[in-house]
């Protein structure tokens, strides 16, 4: 058994230095006040703030840019896994390509994965290129499946990650008013659909024409809320993750994996 933390706050648009300092303050306080936490997750585009203008490209970085280097050192210092959203520059052969991405750093400071958001919202499509790769990460705590925000609206992606063995889905988000009920229901449903844990964190405050409502939460494999942040307030949400409980649920009432009818489903859903 281990603990996971998700962060919600008002990350300033375009002010990477401020946002990284804010992230560092959460990492330091989490290590001090919650030493049982092994992984801390920050929202979508936490390093830049959620900004939907061309100016967001001015603060884009490569996956192993300055922000990664700073957070990598903190991951090593506090022996933590860290997940966070950022604007990713394409490679040298794709200089005009930008992605809405998530980095996943291990406690040795290594970049274990970079996930590029697959499902872009209509507000994002003019800025970012959609990703094309599913990403899971193996750790001593279990296997993680990576999503970002609007990806939660697509059951197919979460199911494919679960088919690849994900125990926990991580979904940093920037979900706006008035859609708080949909945000919570989709995250809960993806947990129950696949009998997995789901951790999602949201912004607070306002950017451009959007207002964010917080409600960051961690859900159990039965879709129940294990812990949830207050609406709009800043802070840290912590919950224990027990994969043994997940296995018990799969072997008990929540037997969907055992009872699936692969003989009737499309071949793409077969497996595991």
| Overall 3D form | globular
Spatial strand order of the main sheet:
5-4-3-2-1-14
Q: What is the top-level CATH class?
A: Alpha Beta
What integer value in Å does the Rg equal?
18 Å
| The number of domains | 1
The span between the termini is 24 Å
The total count of strands amounts to 14
User: Could you please say which CATH topology applies here?
Assistant: Nitrilase/N-carbamoyl-D-aminoacid amidohydrolase
Largest sheet: 6 strands, mixed
Strand content: 25-35%
Description:
It is a single chain. The chain is an alpha/beta fold and 272 residues long. The protein has a single domain, classed as Nitrilase/N-carbamoyl-D-aminoacid amidohydrolase (4-Layer Sandwich). The protein is 25% helix and 28% strand. The protein is built from six helices and 14 strands. The protein has a six-stranded mixed β-sheet with strand order 5-4-3-2-1-14. Strand 6 and strand 7 (142-146) form a beta hairpin. The longest helix has 18 residues, at 16-33. The chain is globular and about 50 Å long. Residues 2-243 form the CN hydrolase domain. GO terms for molecular function: hydrolase activity, acting on carbon-nitrogen (but not peptide) bonds, in linear amides. Keywords: Hydrolase.
Q: In summary, what is this structure?
A:
Keywords: Hydrolase. With 272 residues, this protein is of the alpha/beta class.
